[in-house]
Design a protein that fits this description.
Layout: E1 3-7, E2 10-13, E3 18-25, E4 34-39, E5 46-51, E6 57-59, E7 67-72, E8 77-82, E9 91-97, E10 106-111
Parallel strand pairs: 2-10
Antiparallel strand pairs: 1-3, 3-8, 4-5, 4-9, 5-6, 7-8, 9-10
Length: 112
């Protein structure tokens, strides 16, 4: 099984950037689809970005052009580069395996 662990969250001003990292254990990492989700206070968890084993990517409309998901199979890691951050990007960000395990989440706070 692949078990994700997130890192890289923090406090940033609007317009700033952060890069989240997700370290994943497991022998099958290279063949699984990985996703980033987020949950804002009082809101449902939403899908932010996905990357397949073939490096195909998809993004929520709200982050297109600002966020970039990538993966490094040699390091068993997935990344989310977030640029031009907005206060509405605030939330707990989770790394997840499609149909599998979730990480514990990392807090991202964007101040106005």
């Amino acid at each position: 099984q692949v078990q994700p662990v997130e890192s890289g969250g923090g406090l940033v001003q609007a317009g700033g950037s952060l890069r989240l990292s997700c370290a994943a254990s497991g022998k099958i990492f290279s063949i699984v689809t990985m996703s980033w989700y987020r949950q804002a206070p009082g809101k449902q968890r939403e899908l932010v970005a996905t990357i397949t084993s073939s490096y195909n990517t998809n993004y929520a409309d709200s982050v297109k052009g600002r966020f970039t998901i990538s993966r490094d199979n040699a390091k068993k890691a997935v990344y989310l580069l977030m640029n031009s951050l907005k206060p509405e990007d605030t939330g707990v960000y989770y790394c997840a395996v499609l149909g599998g395990n979730w990480g514990q989440g990392t807090q991202v706070t964007v101040s106005s």
